[in-house]
Amino acid sequence: MGNVFNIFEERGFVEQVSDRDQVVSLFDEPVTCYIGFDPTASSLHLGSLVPIMSLAHAQRHGHRPIAVVGGGTTLVGDPSGKTEMRRLMSREEIDQNATGIKSQLARFLDFTNDRALMVNNADWLTPLNYIEFLRDIGRHFSVNRMLAAESYKVRLETGLSFIEFNYMLLQAYDYWHLFKHYGCRLQMGGSDQWGNILAGADLIRRLEGEVVHALTFPLITTSSGIKMGKTHKGAIWLDEKLTPPYEYYQYWMNQSDQDIERFLALFTFLPMDEVRRLGTLKGSEIRQAKEVLAYEATALCHGKEEADKARQAAKQLFEAGGEEAPAAEGRSGPEMSDSVPTYAVSPDELELGIPIYLLFERARLCKSKSEARRLVSQGGAYVNSRRIETFDEVVNAGDMQKGFILLRAGKKRYLRIVVKS
What we know:
Elements: H1 4-11, E1 16-17, H2 20-26, E2 32-37, H3 49-60, E3 64-69, H4 91-105, E4 117-120, H5 122-125, H6 130-136, H7 143-148, H8 150-156, H9 162-165, H10 167-182, E5 184-190, H11 194-208, E6 213-217, E7 230-231, E8 234-235, H12 245-253, H13 260-267, H14 272-279, H15 286-302, H16 304-319, E9 342-345, H17 347-352, E10 354-355, H18 356-362, H19 369-377, E11 381-383, E12 386-387, E13 394-395, E14 405-409, E15 413-419
Parallel strand pairs: 2-3, 2-5, 3-4, 5-6, 9-15
Antiparallel strand pairs: 1-6, 7-8, 10-13, 11-12, 11-14, 14-15
Helix pairs in contact: 10-11, 12-15, 12-16, 13-14, 13-15, 15-16, 18-19
């Protein structure tokens, strides 16, 4: 199947590596590698997808991934990438979040027969004796070197708490623990974790006289410079209760044409020949590549059945009067799948009529009434493929077509209005 490090490089996963030649040689034989996921929320979000996909690629090439749920380190809080101290969380809240994250990781990794492991660093960090930890572990760390780490340098400008200062020691201890108990020889993570990972590798060298390695991934942004996974509604979550599969599918459909080939390489398992072929599509044909990206990414996260539903719902919306294929005014659309985002109104209020700017705000297609007014004034508000000309135009029962009213904000954000039963 080839060396997985070459797969990482070809698909765009590699930002930094401790020693490229040695890591390539490391992957010539089955190796145990790990990534940590701090349970600061009840779900992982799209920003965690590159690390997750890297573990999945490693497993597919015969290696054993370890997903470390940071129940212990989250009690301290990682200062990396933050301008202020994270909110300190209770053990109960962390444990509850960890349970949800475990189920999400299981969609991407096969944990049967120890082919992948999932462990919680609270199991070995919380029983530590502080004095012994300082004496046995802390003495190997130079404060000067720690302060030179990028994650600490940024925080020194705004204030770095002592509890956060300990985070690097705890993450290094994690690496040493996994080396001792599971033979782990590679830690991977985001680019902001480079200093922490190297600290762990150095600790293992000092305590065990062994060489282990570090690999980090680039920060993924869209071609417009926006951090991956951010939308007008906030983060894109892997939990279907927070981001429904249809919205997840639409997120991928809405990516810029310039990003499709890169995202196909990072977020699907399609062969690179197919990725490159899809990347050559231009004009209206690029929609085909977007559909492949959206379907493959949704199937990985939510399963084939949900991906099928999302694809069908998106197709129905497209046929009902999308920007790229406008329907004739007044045309009845097809029956809508239950996967399509829906907002219900009462029969009485629909009979009376609802000003369009209020409806767009209430249905959360716009964040506020003023944003809805701007959308209308800029020509971006549609009802059943008909452009709305005035912000106070009223939507009423006469706009119902086959049991729903189709709203569109801009080119790509759809929602159907139904009547409460």
